[in-house]
Amino acid sequence: MFLSFERARLSAAPQTPKKSNAALAASALLILAPFTLAQKAAPANVTADLPAGALQAKATAACLECHEARIILQQRLSKAAWTKEVDKMTKWGAVVDAADRDALIDYLSANFSPDKPAYEAQQTSASTGGTGKASK
Amino acid sequence: MNSRRDFLKQMSGAALVAGAAPSIFTWALPQAQGVEFPGEEGMILRSFRFVDLESPVEYFNTWLTPVPHFFVRNHMHEPAELGADDWRLSLGGEVEKPLTLGLAELSKLETHSVVNTLECAGNGRSLHRPQVPGIQWGKGAVSTARFSGPRLRDVLERCGVKPTGKHVMFRGLDEVPGKVPPFIRSIPIEKALDAGTLIATRMNGSPLTKHHGFPARALVPGWIGAASCKWLTEIKVLDAEFVGNFMSTGYRLPNQPVKPGDVVKPEDTHPVTALSVKSVISGPSDGASLRAGKVVVHGTAWAGEADIVKVEISTDGGASWSSAKLGHDHAHYAWRLWSYEWKAGKSGDYTILSRATDSQGRTQPATPVWNPSGYLYNAIDQVKIHVS
Predict the structure, then answer these.
(1) What is the domain extent for residue A84?
(2) pLDDT tens digits along B286-327
(3) A103 in a domain, yes or no?
(4) Does any domain span residue A58?
(5) Other C-beta atoms within 10 Å of B226: how many?
(6) Residues on chain B touching A39 (C-beta within 8 angstroms)
(7) Which of A120, A71, A74 minimizes the C-alpha distance to B20?
(8) How many Å lie between the alpha carbon of B216 and the closest alpha carbon of chain A?
(9) Structural domain count, chain A
(10) Closest-CA distance of chain A to residue B114, Å
(11) B18 chain-A contacts, CB cut-off 8 A
(12) Which pTM value belongs to this model?
C-alpha cells in the first residue's frame, strides 16, 4: 500500500538537521564554494505539516494516511467546496468520526480559504538549470 | 501501515533548512534550495506523495523536454515493484483472441515514434477564479517528448477486434489507497486504432522511467495526459465507454458554459479528450526588470490534434498584435517554439501577451472558460515586466 519509493528515499536520506549556527556558517561558506560542494547542501523537508489547531491531529490521521499535506496546503476553497471534498474523501476511505466532520470542515475552511495568501511551492533540487526560486 | 507512521514521525520533526535561505544565495546556489528528488531537477513540487511535479516555464525552451524536466502527474501511489521480466500486458474483452504479452514480445513488434506534447487536463487550474479543488498547477503541467513503441492498433489487430468493440479501456498498476476508485479510463475505438496511438515503452530514446510509466504506458497523442495511462497492465475492448469515477465523474466538461455554483447534471457533460489551443511565454519571466533595447520574447504553443498556425504578441496590453516567428522543429502533435524580437523603448511597466491560433481556427480566449474542475485553462498568456 505504501509507496516503496518513499521507503527507499527515507532509508537513503540523511536526517535533515535543525537549523543551527553551524548550518548557517556552512551556508555562508557555500557562496564561495565550488559548484560541486554546493550540490551537497542539505535538502529541504520532503514532507510538510498541517497547521496547528484543535483538529490538526485528527486531520493528519484522516487525510495524510493516503496523501501528503501539500495537497491540502495548496487549496484555497470555500466552505461549500471543503464540505464536498471532506465527504468525497470520507467515501473514499478517509476515517472521519461523524462527530468530527463539521469541525474538520471548519478547520480546513478556516486555514485554506480563498482570502488566504497564495501558496508558495518549493522546488526539487537541481543539479543543472532551474531557477532555484520557489514558484507560485 | 507502521512504515508510514514511522515515516511521518521521523519527518515531522525535521527542520526546513533550505527554504529560508537569503535571496543573495539564489544565483550562486540554485541547487541548494530544493527538496531532494533524484532524477527530477528543479521541478515545482506540487506533491511528494503522490508524486506531482510541475515544469517551471523557464524550461520551455527546448523542443523536446529532457526527462528530468518533464512534468509528472500521478493520481495514486506508483507501483511498488515492477520487474521488466515479470511484467505482463493482457488484452481482452470484445476481441476474437485474447492475448498476454511480455516486454520482450512487445519489443519484437514494429516500433513507431511520435513526438507528442503531453498536458495534464488540469494545467493552469490555479489561475481559475473562483479557485477549484485539485492539484493547483501553474502553467507547467505540460512537456514534450518523443515516445516510441508499437502501435496500439497493431496489437489490437493481432487480437481481432469484434464489431461490438467501441471503446478501449486502459488499466494501470497504480496502487490504490483506501477505497479510492481505481484509475481506469477508456478511449473511443477510432482513436485507439489511429496510427499515432502507441503502447509506449521509450521516451526520448530511453526506456520509460518509473515516474513516466515503466515499463509501458498508453500514448494517446493530442489528448489530455489522463488518456495516456501509465504502468499499463490491461487493455480491454468494451462495447461502450468505461463506467467509473475517472470517466463518468472526473475528466468531464459541461456541454454548456456554467457559472460557479451551478448544478451540472452528469448527462449534461462530456469527457475531456483533445487539448485546446494554448501558448505560454517562457521568457522574459513574470516580474522581470529589463533594460530598454532589444528584448526577445519567447515561448511555446500547442493545440492537441491541430497545428499551430500563428502566435501573436502584444506589448501594449492587447491594443496591437504582431506575429512571432515559429520555430523550425514541428510535428503533428508537438508544441511549436516561438520567438519575437521587441524593441523596448520607454521605461515603465509593460504587460506582454501571447495568443495562439490553430489550424481548426481556434484562438485563445481573453478570459478563461471557468468550469467546476478547472480543466483546459487556455486564456491568453501574460507576463508583467519593468523596463528601465
Answers:
(1) 77-114
(2) 999 999 999 999 999 999 999 999 999 999 999 999 999 999
(3) yes
(4) no
(5) 21
(6) 31-32
(7) A120
(8) 19
(9) 1
(10) 27
(11) 41-44
(12) 0.85
